[in-house]
Design a protein that fits this description.
- With 268 residues, this protein is an alpha/beta fold.
- It starts with a strand and ends in a 5-residue tail after the last helix.
- α2 packs parallel to α3.
- It has a single domain, classed as Rossmann fold (3-Layer(aba) Sandwich), CATH 3.40.50.720.
- It contains eight helices and eleven strands.
- The radius of gyration is 19 Å and the shape is globular.
- A six-stranded parallel sheet has the order 2-1-3-4-5-9, sandwiched between helices. A three-stranded mixed sheet has the order 6-8-10.
C-alpha cells in the first residue's frame, strides 16, 4: 500500500477520494491549505484537488492562487513520489464540434472573463508538464456528477433540488450538451493514474455528451416533477472528449453517468 496526500480534501472530489483510498488500504494525509508541513514532510503520491469552480468570476485572485500559486510552491519545494494535478475539460471551450484529445490545440481569450478559469488551469498544467519535476501529471476532469453535498449550486444537484419541490425550470436551451463523468470513476482512476500512468496528461471523461433535456426529463420522471423550459434560453455546446488514452492504457470503461447518478439518488 502507498502513502497518498490529498490536497483539497474537504471538497466534493477530495473527500470522496480520501474515503476511497482509505477503504483500499492506503495511508492518507489530508493537510489544510495553510499547513506548512506540506513543504517539510514527504507527501508520497500527492493529488492536487484544490480549486475554485462556480464562483471563479467573483474570486479571480483566489482562483489563480488555488490553481497556480500553491502548485508552484509545491513543485519548487515539496518532497513527493508523484503529483497529480486536477485540471478540467472546460479548457477545450466550445470547439467546432470535432472530438478533442490531450494533444488538441486550445484557444483562450484574456478579454473574456470566463476564460480566467481556463487560463489558470492551463498555467497549472504547464507548470506540471514543464516545471522541471519528474512524475508530475495533469488530469483534465469532465463535469463530475455524484457525491454532491446538500445545497450544492452545481447544475445537476440544483435540478434535483428543484425536482424535489415539484417543478424544474430549465434556464438553458434543452439541446445544450456536454460530457459528464460519475465521481466513482474519478476516485477509482486517479490513484491508478498517480501510481502507474505512462503519460503526463489525461482526459478523465465518459466520452459521451448528454443533453440538458435528457437530464431534466430523467430527473423530473424520477421525482414526478413538472418541467418548464425558458424560451430563447442560451445554448451551451461543448466538444466530444476523447478518452482513447485511458482506454488504451488502462482498459477504462466509464459508468453511464446519467443512469448511475439516478440510481444513487435517495428519498422521494
Amino acid at each position: 500500500m502507498a502513502l497518498f496526500t490529498v490536497l483539497g480534501a474537504t471538497g466534493t472530489i477530495g473527500a470522496k477520494l480520501v474515503a476511497h483510498l482509505r477503504a483500499s488500504g492506503h495511508a492518507v494525509e489530508t493537510p489544510g491549505r495553510e499547513d506548512a508541513r506540506v513543504f517539510t514532510h514527504p507527501l508520497g503520491h500527492a493529488i492536487y484537488c484544490i480549486g475554485v469552480t462556480a464562483d471563479f468570476r467573483t474570486r479571480p485572485l483566489e482562483t489563480v492562487e488555488a490553481h497556480v500559486c500553491l502548485l508552484r510552491r509545491l513543485l519548487a519545494s515539496a518532497a513527493f513520489e508523484s503529483l497529480t494535478y486536477l485540471s478540467s475539460t472546460r479548457i477545450y471551450g466550445g470547439g467546432n464540434g470535432q472530438e478533442v484529445n490531450e494533444d488538441s490545440a486550445l484557444s483562450v481569450n484574456s478579454n473574456d472573463p470566463s476564460d480566467l478559469y481556463n487560463l489558470s488551469k492551463l498555467m497549472g498544467e504547464s507548470l506540471c508538464l514543464h516545471g522541471g519535476r519528474t512524475n508530475v501529471r495533469a488530469v483534465r476532469l469532465s463535469n463530475v456528477v455524484g457525491g454532491d453535498t446538500a445545497g450544492s449550486l452545481n447544475f445537476i444537484p440544483a435540478l434535483v433540488s428543484e425536482a424535489r419541490k415539484g417543478e424544474i425550470t430549465l434556464r438553458s436551451d434543452p439541446e445544450s450538451a456536454k460530457d459528464y463523468i460519475h465521481i466513482e470513476d474519478v476516485v477509482e482512476m486517479l490513484p491508478t493514474i498517480a501510481l502507474t500512468g505512462r503519460h503526463r496528461l489525461y482526459n478523465l471523461a465518459s466520452g459521451t455528451k448528454i443533453a440538458h433535456r435528457d437530464w431534466v426529463e430523467a430527473i423530473a420522471q424520477r421525482f414526478g416533477a413538472r418541467v418548464t423550459y425558458t424560451p430563447d434560453a442560451p445554448r451551451f455546446d461543448f466538444p466530444p472528449i476523447s478518452i482513447a488514452r485511458l482506454a488504451e492504457e488502462f482498459g477504462f470503461a466509464p459508468r453511464p453517468p446519467l443512469q448511475t447518478y439516478l440510481a444513487g439518488l435517495t428519498g422521494p
